[in-house]
Write a structure and sequence with these properties.
The protein contains 13 helices and 12 strands. The protein is α/β, with parallel strands linked by helices and 384 residues long. The longest helix is centred in the first third of the chain and has 13 residues. The structure holds pyridoxal-5'-phosphate (PLP) and iron/sulfur cluster.
């Protein structure tokens, strides 16, 4: 007596099935405003989960959670220096869906779907629009990785890889794990922030079969660290998966040292290691989120020395034109000569330390050490 009963949807599937994609669900706008937002959503898809909507406190752009997920009339305000693909990701693709920019690691776009379309997304040009890569395209990327022994680290990205089913993900990950020179596999995923119920024990157990496996997630505001999100991150960590966080510096969301400090503390309490803070990329449709670079430096200054060392992420600018991520650090060096380095600490105090190393004090004559070598310091004329 074989009768098929459809299984009840899991909570995370329910979130996707009942997600919001109609701008008319934003209350209180005029007909003209709705039409403008509809035109924007036509160009840049709108989709969000009931869960992430429930974190909104004020239904307008003054609310950091509203701002990140709701289409905004300013998405069509584009100064001429903005581009669809400012990081030249498409140019660095030897095969479709794979960006090979750094010699030893690759970014593998395994889907273009997300559980929520961040209005500030760097891949705004294609998320929610391009078709899902077909298995034979994914296989071609996997073959490329297998043929390139210098690739030791594979970053699964998208879109959001965790919008794939466990079995689709395992299809990819198990093939990567079978490649002897692939040391690390990692995922970049916003899911713990926007659909945390997706982090199930079954998913974590599957990922843990392919260790060393890492996950970088994406929180931008302390209010996103709800009990559900904290549970999701904790479950990953319980399965031995180190969880990091990549935060985007966003005007009106977290461009404030106090908010950022609160976010970093909330992440640490959730056992998540702050990894990067990104300066906004020069992406069309996202300019209203862009802050000054000085704001990012001010935030790092407010964290370094003032809070837990491993709670301070690296502030990076992803260089336009495909230069990769470049760390931008508050200048701690007051002066550097062959004899001494003068440093500024977190409170503005100035301290000195001998610049030369062991060899100069212990060998005779023109002892050469890396630190004491006058030629070495001449390579950094900025400190003369
Ligand atoms: C960010 C990125 C990586 C990974 O960089 P890490 O600094 O190692 O996290 C790899 N490839 C591309 C194209 C990237 O943008
Ligand atoms: S989840 Fe990531 S890829 Fe998807 S829209 Fe947000 S930033 Fe872009």
């Amino acid at each position: 007596m074989a009768h098929q009963r459809s299984r009840p949807r899991a909570e995370w599937q329910e979130q996707l099935a009942t997600g919001v994609r109609d701008v008319r669900e934003i209350p209180g706008l005029t007909e003209e405003q709705y039409q403008r937002l509809e035109a924007i959503a036509e160009e840049y898809p709108f989709f969000t989960t009931p869960y992430y909507l429930s974190l909104i406190e004020n239904w307008d752009a003054s609310d950091p959670i509203f701002l990140q997920q709701m289409p905004d009339a300013r998405e069509f305000e584009n100064p001429s220096f903005l581009e669809d693909d400012p990081l030249d990701e498409e140019d660095d693709m030897p095969v479709p869906h794979l960006t090979h920019r750094y010699p030893d690691r690759v970014l593998f776009v395994v889907t273009h779907t997300c559980a929520m379309y961040c209005r500030f997304c760097t891949r705004k040009r294609k998320v929610g629009k391009n078709p899902v890569p077909r298995p034979e395209e994914l296989q071609r990327a996997i073959d490329y990785i297998a043929e390139h022994e210098e690739i030791r680290d594979v970053l699964l990205s998208g879109g959001d890889p965790l919008t794939l089913t466990d079995s689709a993900l395992e299809w990819i990950i198990s093939r990567l794990r079978a490649i002897p020179h692939v040391e690390l596999i990692r995922i970049g995923s916003k899911i713990p922030c926007v659909n945390p119920e997706r982090i199930t024990p079954e998913l974590c157990e599957m990922l843990a079969r392919y260790h060393p496996f890492y996950l970088n997630t994406h929180f931008n505001h302390p209010r996103e660290l709800t009990p559900e999100a904290v549970r999701a991150c904790g479950l990953l960590v319980d399965h031995g998966i180190p969880v990091g966080c990549q935060t985007v510096l966003l005007r009106g969301v977290n461009d404030d040292p106090e908010v950022m400090k609160e976010l970093m503390h909330a992440l640490l309490k959730a056992r998540v290691k702050p990894y990067y803070i990104y300066q906004a990329d020069l992406v069309k449709g996202t300019d209203y989120f862009r802050t000054s670079v000085q704001k990012g430096l001010e935030i790092i200054e407010s964290l370094q020395g003032h809070t837990t060392g491993f709670g301070v992420p690296t502030f990076v600018i992803d260089a336009p034109g495909g230069g990769g991520k470049i760390p931008v650090t508050p200048d701690r060096i007051v002066s550097l000569t062959d004899d001494a380095i003068t440093l500024r600490n977190f409170e503005g105090g100035v301290y000195e330390y001998p610049a030369h190393g062991y060899s100069r004090d212990h060998a005779d004559g023109d002892a050469v050490s890396q630190n004491g070598d006058p030629e070495a310091s001449r390579a950094y004329p900025i400190y003369d």
